């Protein structure tokens, strides 16, 4: 069984992944919609910017985030001036690192499912008297919900496994920023850590698998509801 | 009801440039594909912003560009019904019908019941859209649009994705909507018979320009005169009065103006006008009435004009007070020696007289 310290690590990981998904789902939907429906030459640039964390080495992403949010970074300083606290090396930093790295997966999945919604359905909705926002909430979003769910699950799974950006931005502080991957790495370099490593690896596999199965189940249930 | 439009819009090498005014209440927009019908409809609906133009529905200006009024589609009160029914697949049939603002309340009162009644939607209410047939879906789409209480319905070839029988059914429903609910419509079609049956006034488009405007009978019944022959599938479009019904004989007798035409048995009351379409290919010309004829119509005619076009000859004849167009081969024209003023007999089978409502 897991020790109390290991349970704490798993709980922290789930918390970080959960918050990172919650924090990125609304911006993800907005950007996914923008990338799917916005006709502008700037769209390609925006898409590139959104996808960047997917192709950058996570350590580089972490470095850039630290430059921005660290104590001497512009956003870090602004945060300190307003709240008196710091962002880097906190649980919040773990959430930010996980959210940024998982964001491209979320946006791309949402974008693809919005592209799959027939724009003529939106036209009909508007000619029936529903404005842009109401049309989005009543037609576009419900019809692209499977993509939103898939995107949330993918980015949740990605967040669970996040290591590179996390260790740079948030460090390795027990109980605060030591998530499962960071703990596994630490334990691998610790004498007698093997059994703890195996337990955490098993939990990690089980959580990721459960997330994927849940997503599949939700998607099937939705399809049945529509039929 | 009135609509007034002046539009100049260029897009991807196509230019729509027209101006018209119509009192409707049902305005037909007729033309071949690529003539600008759908672009016009999208300008009226608010999905295309014309470079320049003014559009007013019932004197309410919805678009005046450049610089003036611009109402987005949702504030125009012009509900669109397209070729595909476009029901919202994630909603039930009832929720589709109740989609527009206020439609849920209308479904609960007499104005909504009337729409449900006219479109015979009651048996469909509890069914999922995916289980409906094509014609049923289009009925729901029509109901959904009407329940938004539009000032005008915008119909973009609403029957063209349906097979002939369902298309007739939807057309009949539109006639019921016009008669019972009196909803004004802007009706885009490339089918002349539909236009004849439904429209009070029609505009003909070609290449983004207005070719003709007037009552459909006038604009379409002499298509050659206005150069829209190739647009019209049926060459003879007539509005004729019902003289009497011969039920045992299976025919309805129509008045060609002194000459009688036997058409298939119709439900229209005696004295009413009906639209009839006859293909020019289905009119046979003879020098005298052939004996022992199964065709019910052997109409004495006088030839008005004979025009040879490519490998066919179009013969305009007058039967009673009505002009008919027959299409024959040059060889037949030669053998019959058809000349203007010559007497001839037009033989038309009853089944070739297509009643269009």
Task: Please provide a written account of the structure.
The complex is a heterodimer of chains A (227) and B (357). Chain A is built from 11 helices and no strands. Chain A has helices at 4-37, 42-55, 58-69, 74-83, 91-115, 119-127, 132-143, 145-160, 164-169, 180-188, 194-226. Chain B contains 10 helices and 20 strands. Chain B has helices at 37-45, 93-97, 103-107, 110-118, 134-146, 164-181, 192-198, 216-221, 223-226, 330-336, and strands spanning 3-11, 14-22, 26-30, 52-57, 60-65, 78-81, 152-156, 185-189, 201-206, 209-214, 236-246, 251-255, 260-264, 273-278, 284-286, 297-309, 312-319, 322-328, 343-348, 354-355. Chain B has a 6-stranded mixed β-sheet, sandwiched between helices. Chain B has a 5-stranded antiparallel β-sheet with strand order 13-12-11-14-20. In chain B, strands 15-19-16-17-18 form a 5-stranded antiparallel β-sheet. In chain B, a hairpin with a 2-residue loop joins strand 17 (312-319) and strand 18 (322-328). The longest helix of chain B is centred in the middle third of the chain and has 18 residues, at 164-181. In chain B, 43% of the residues are buried. Chain A binds chain B through residues 118, 120-121, 123-132, 134-135, 138-139, 142-143, 225-227, and chain B through 45-47, 72-80, 82, 84, 86, 88-90, 99-103, 128, 130, 144-145, 148, 154.
């Amino acid at each position: 069984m897991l020790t109390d310290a290991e349970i704490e690590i798993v709980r922290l990981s789930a918390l970080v992944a959960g918050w990172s998904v919650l924090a990125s789902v609304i911006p993800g939907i907005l950007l996914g919609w923008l990338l799917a429906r916005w006709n502008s030459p700037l769209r390609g640039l925006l898409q590139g910017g959104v996808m960047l964390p997917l192709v950058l080495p996570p350590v580089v992403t972490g470095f850039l985030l630290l430059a921005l949010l660290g104590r001497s970074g512009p956003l870090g300083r602004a945060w300190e001036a307003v709240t008196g606290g710091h962002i880097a090396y906190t649980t919040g930093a773990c959430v930010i690192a996980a959210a940024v790295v998982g964001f491209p997966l979320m946006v791309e999945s949402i974008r693809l499912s919005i592209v799959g919604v027939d724009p003529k359905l939106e036209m009909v909705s508007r000619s029936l008297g529903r404005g842009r926002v109401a049309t989005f909430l009543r037609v576009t979003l419900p019809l692209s919900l499977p993509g939103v769910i898939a995107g949330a699950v993918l980015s949740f799974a990605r967040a669970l496994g996040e290591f590179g950006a996390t260790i740079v931005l948030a460090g390795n502080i027990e109980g605060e920023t030591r998530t499962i991957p960071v703990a596994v790495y630490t334990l691998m370099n610790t004498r007698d850590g093997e059994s703890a490593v195996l337990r955490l690896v098993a939990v990690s596999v089980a959580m990721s698998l459960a997330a994927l199965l849940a997503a599949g189940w939700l998607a099937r249930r939705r399809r049945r509801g529509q039929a | 009801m009135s609509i007034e439009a002046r539009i100049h819009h260029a897009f991807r090498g196509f230019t729509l440039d027209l101006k018209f005014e119509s009192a409707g209440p049902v305005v037909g927009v007729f033309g071949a594909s690529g003539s600008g019908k759908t672009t016009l409809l999208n300008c009226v609906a608010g999905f295309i912003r014309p470079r320049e133009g003014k559009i007013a529905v019932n004197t309410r200006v919805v678009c005046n560009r450049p610089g003036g009024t611009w109402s987005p589609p949702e504030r125009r009160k012009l509900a669109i019904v397209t070729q595909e029914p476009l029901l919202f697949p994630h909603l039930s049939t009832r929720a589709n019908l109740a989609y527009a603002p206020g439609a849920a309340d209308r479904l609960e009162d007499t104005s909504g019941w009337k729409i449900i009644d006219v479109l015979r939607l009651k048996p469909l209410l509890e069914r999922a859209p995916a289980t409906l047939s094509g014609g049923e879906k289009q009925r729901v789409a029509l109901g959904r649009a009407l329940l938004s209480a539009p000032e005008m319905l915008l119909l973009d070839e609403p029957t063209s994705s349906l097979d002939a029988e369902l298309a007739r059914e939807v057309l009949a429903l539109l006639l019921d909507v016009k008669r019972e609910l009196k909803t004004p419509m802007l009706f885009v079609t490339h089918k002349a018979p539909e236009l004849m049956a439904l429209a009070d006034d029609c505009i003909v488009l070609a290449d983004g320009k207005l070719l003709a405007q007037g009552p459909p009978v006038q604009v379409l019944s002499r298509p050659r005169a206005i150069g829209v022959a190739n647009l019209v599938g049926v060459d003879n479009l007539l509005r004729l009065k019902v003289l009497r019904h011969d039920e045992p004989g299976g025919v309805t007798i129509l008045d060609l103006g002194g000459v009688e035409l036997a058409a298939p048995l119709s439900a229209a009351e005696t004295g009413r006008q009906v639209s009839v379409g006859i293909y020019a290919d289905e009119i046979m010309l003879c020098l005298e009435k052939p004996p022992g004829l199964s065709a019910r119509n052997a109409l004495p005619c006088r030839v008005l004009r004979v025009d040879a076009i490519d490998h066919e000859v179009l013969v305009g004849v007058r039967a009673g007070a009505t002009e008919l167009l027959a299409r024959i081969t040059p060889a037949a024209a030669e053998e019959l020696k058809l000349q203007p003023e010559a007497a001839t007999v037009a033989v038309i089978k009853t089944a070739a007289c297509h009643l269009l409502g």
